[in-house]
Amino acid sequence: MRFLDRLRSLPILDLVFFFGASLLVWNLHRYVEPVPSEFFYPSFLLQFSFGFFPQLYQRKWGRVWTSMAAITFVRLPYLSGIPMVGSYQLVGLFLGSILGIWVRETLLVLLGRNETALPKQSEQIITDWMIRNPTGKSNLPIWYSTYFGFLFFILCLMILSFLQFQGMGLFTSLGIQEFLYYPNLSSREAMGLACKILIPLTLVILYFFSEERSMPTPSKDSLSEQVRFGLFLGFGINLLVMFIQSIWSLDFFAKGTLLSVEAGRTTGFFQDSGSASWLLPVLGFLWISKLMHIWRMSKERFSLILLILSFVFISWLGLKQGKAFWIIWSLMISIGMIQQLTEIWIVSPKHKILTRIGMYLFLPVLGCLTLYGLSLISKEWGLVVLAKRFMLFLNSFPQNSDIAFQHLDLVRLELIRVANSGIKENLWMGNGIGSFPLYLLSPSHVATNKYIPFIDFPPTFYHWILYDLGILGAFVFLFFIGIFLWERGLWKQAILLLIPFLFGVQIQNSDGAFICFYLVLLGEKGTGFSPSFDKYRKTIWFSPLLLILSIGLPLNYSLFQSQKFLSLGIGSEFRKNEFKEYQIAYTLPPKSPNYEYEFHGKVWEWKLVDANGLRNGRIFLETNFKSSLVEIIFLNVDRNRIKQELFTETKSGYTWNGEAPNGASFLRIQSRSKLEFRLPKSQFDSIGRIQF
């Protein structure tokens, strides 16, 4: 086959789609997390290498290395002494993996792997590489995939968050401007709160989509098995680090875990003790379940001994975990034991069901008795503290339920109250993604807050999805999750997420998002369709209907949600009614000794100080940058152009002298190329209007 024919056989649509989506995530991440290059790129390139080169070498080891790094790399910058801004999103790792997948697939096609004859033996290295990597191909159009609808919904949420935090500037030729959203919070930082959810979600889904899209069909590879192997490797590394932290020092590889060390908790390489408290029991349960399966199939004593030792070891590590670990671990192990023991010892299906029901009813009683016994211990372990709080809760509940819940967890109770209040205010449409931590940062809440010592997302996933997305948004989100589960027949496996989701928004970090979507997307047999879904998928009407719903539901939600953004204003009037000031749209605020605003970009617009007559004056843009054209434009109240002039270039910047025409309400400065300049604070009045 000629090279041009190979070029035509490339999956062009796939390459354009994944390259465009990856570029969008990259630009969004660099915008909301503008870490200086000297800090950002060392960590980014190391993460990128761990994703790119193994994927380029072989599909199997690419999956293994990516999965292992997903739960061990979130604090990589801090561990290397670099500030941790944005590291929890693992942008480098997933972008490297996605690029590695598609570079590999492109090279395989261009080198002729689709052809019958392999290269000559003299090219043994290339031949071996091609044998290790059979070319992937998917006949299903990319927009008919269940991934496509979810990614489209996330894109809609990105646009809605942009409108909420940046205004309509981009759609009115003003570009992306950085406003003062709250007195101590810029719009860029506010949008970063939304992107703490959006970026990890997008990257993880893009990665799994790339893996499935590039798989040979039919495939001998088990995507699920290889990803799980990588997760178990990373889990073992975390267990080793936790063991060292437990017996030697909590400070061992613990930089960046915030308050975890102060609370006496081990974190491994996870984000912090909050992540460790749910990832440790979930991964531990998966590991023990795998050992149980091996033992039941082979009856090897080694597997049984390793299972028992693993259970004891993980439980011992849990002594320095939060109470969430013990709730999740106890419930999972108890339910797993009931299921397994009844499966092994009881043959009759009727007796098996009745026995399980009886044991499940007795489980809460056994739990209460266990906690009562533990509350008598004088140690300050997390499990003992949980037992003592639970006893206080039981004693206080009959008299005063509020006091009882305060004994259980005062901070979590206060967060739930805040979340419930916000849910009631916007029950159907929600408050917008990322709005919960934004509310905690608002001046109105900071002034009255007494019990919440940190800024975080809602205390449970269910509060988050209702607070941010409302009932309609939650329906769209869960619709796509339901389609994934139905497609793969993984309802039982996804139950593992129900309990951990009671203890936080587990998809806000990349390690948590990776585990969650692994449980939703991949089962024991990889990516096979469930029989019921496969039956409908083969019909002529099902895929178009699914596509219509996948596009229509997010669009309708976005249409209704975006109505409130139209009243926020454009340019300098963005949120003027709420903020009581006109937006100056600066990048850096005034600082001593010069007290100058610093502006970056190409276009800026300000409200002019009201005056009855002509306004004469001078504007001097202090800058060392050069642009071939810098102009000043005066606009009326309807933003129609009424006067336009050029700035004069000087040795230290650009200057303009003149007068504002009658009817001018806004002043706009625009440059042909990106410019960085400074204006004195005195150039603006007390409510943010420009004066000269």
Structure description:
The protein has 692 residues and is of the alpha+beta class. It is built from 24 helices and 9 strands. The protein has a 4-stranded antiparallel sheet with strand order 3-9-5-6, with no helix packed on it. The longest helix is centred in the last third of the chain and has 28 residues. The mean pLDDT is 85.
Q: Strand fraction band?
A: 5-15%
What is the subunit arrangement here? single chain
Q: What's the average pLDDT?
A: 85
Report the principal-axis shape: globular
Structural class based on helices, strands and sheet pairing: alpha+beta
Radius of gyration computed on alpha carbons: 29 Å
Euclidean distance between termini CA atoms = 71 Å
- Main sheet specs: 4 strands, antiparallel
What are the segments in which pLDDT stays under 50 over at least 5 consecutive residues? Answer: none
Can you count the helices? 24
Summarize the amount of helix as a percent range. Answer: 55-70%
In summary, what is this structure?
This protein has 692 residues and is an alpha+beta fold. 56% of the residues lie in helices and 9% in strands.
Characteristics of this structure?
692 residues; alpha+beta; 9 strands; 24 helices
Topology, please?
Elements: H1 3-8, H2 12-32, H3 37-57, H4 59-70, H5 76-79, H6 91-110, H7 124-132, H8 146-166, E1 180-182, E2 185-186, H9 187-213, H10 223-247, H11 273-298, H12 301-317, H13 323-345, H14 349-375, H15 382-396, H16 401-425, H17 435-441, H18 443-446, H19 461-488, H20 491-494, H21 510-521, H22 531-537, H23 542-561, H24 576-579, E3 596-607, E4 615-622, E5 630-635, E6 641-646, E7 648-650, E8 653-660, E9 666-680
Antiparallel strand pairs: 1-2, 3-9, 4-8, 5-6, 5-9, 7-8
Helix pairs in contact: 2-6, 2-9, 3-4, 3-6, 4-6, 4-10, 6-9, 8-9, 8-19, 8-23, 9-21, 11-12, 11-13, 13-14, 14-15, 15-16, 16-19, 19-23
